[in-house]
Amino acid sequence: MPKLGMEPIRKAALVNATIVEIGRSGSLDVTVGQIARRAGMSTALAHHYFGSKEALFLAAMRHVLSLYGAEVRGALGVSAGPAQRLNAILRASFSPANFRADVVGAWLNFYVLAQTVPEARRLLNIYQRRLRSNLMDCLHSLAGTRAGAIADGLGALIDGVYLREALAAKPSDGAAAVQLVLAYLNAELSQGAANAG
Amino acid sequence: MPKLGMEPIRKAALVNATIVEIGRSGSLDVTVGQIARRAGMSTALAHHYFGSKEALFLAAMRHVLSLYGAEVRGALGVSAGPAQRLNAILRASFSPANFRADVVGAWLNFYVLAQTVPEARRLLNIYQRRLRSNLMDCLHSLAGTRAGAIADGLGALIDGVYLREALAAKPSDGAAAVQLVLAYLNAELSQGAANAG
DNA sequence: TTTTTTGTTGATTGACGAGTCAATAAACTT
DNA sequence: AAGTTTATTGACTCGTCAATCAACAAAAAA
């Protein structure tokens, strides 16, 4: 009994199921069958809506990245001043929605996907550039010419914390992650102040 | 014409070929056939010596980790004083032998392997613990009670730089990587000094 | 010299999985 | 009412790949 207008619902279900399955299994070797089953439909239907497994993976990546982007934008919207804005970016990066076992697992595997699939690489590059530019906006007034180097360090550190989280036995602790990155940031900033003074 | 004593030679060739193939293709989806061909033998022989693909992957991981470990030990052997020893660890981490496109690609995929294969996870945990303990030895005298936090940050930052390298378009620049991590380290240390003074 | 051990591979098996197809059914259009 | 579009799936094709096997060759041991 085909209800019309299923397409967006089915697609959303498949995208979610993809993230969950990749995260759960910790690998890109999930079958379309597994994903479709978790999303409550047949493999044929998954192919009907996405055409290929790769397209489904890319849609899942876009979804994760856009959720992250939205959360950062939301946090920035209510923050004034560079220091608070930096804080907002970090809190968004390690928010409960993003810093969750399955999402982190998916993230790691998206890095692997980017090794093979140009479009996946493009998406990750966009994410990295946007993060960098957000950081730079704040750092310019706080660290002057050292803003670029600090932004690079922060970006790598955030990714590294994610990577280690993917391997960690313990449950995620976003607050601790924010603290770790903030410690780095404060160290860099106070060193700049020391040099300037 | 079977020359005797081939086992270690064949095994070494297979391990190298595994690292190269995983790095080159950027994925664990390399076939035993590809690896065996690159190592100059048949698939059957690869199975004969390693028994399974998984065992071959694990051997490749052990090899990468042991090369890294040896390089760190070598560098530490000729370094005196905590600051120089920290420097040695970082230089070894980003040495031309380790910080190379295919090795970095393999490293990334070993993280993925660790999601599924307990033995792979164990090996990575050993690497992380050894790195941390090496860093702590140096940091204890330089940063006192903050040594633990700084070691965690350094570990995550090193992994993050590796991760970003796996995505980078440009050729590896180990010197730049060392500089970036050193900047972090100096910032943390000088902040400690500032706080102390 | 016979036997055993080591090295080596082509061919085969068996499983699995992506993507296609044909068919069914309900809803909208004309 | 007839035709079209959307939703849905079971069954199938086709390819791939890990792992096994049977066989052969040469060295070492007996």
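qc> The first helix of chain B runs from residue 7 to 25.
qc> done
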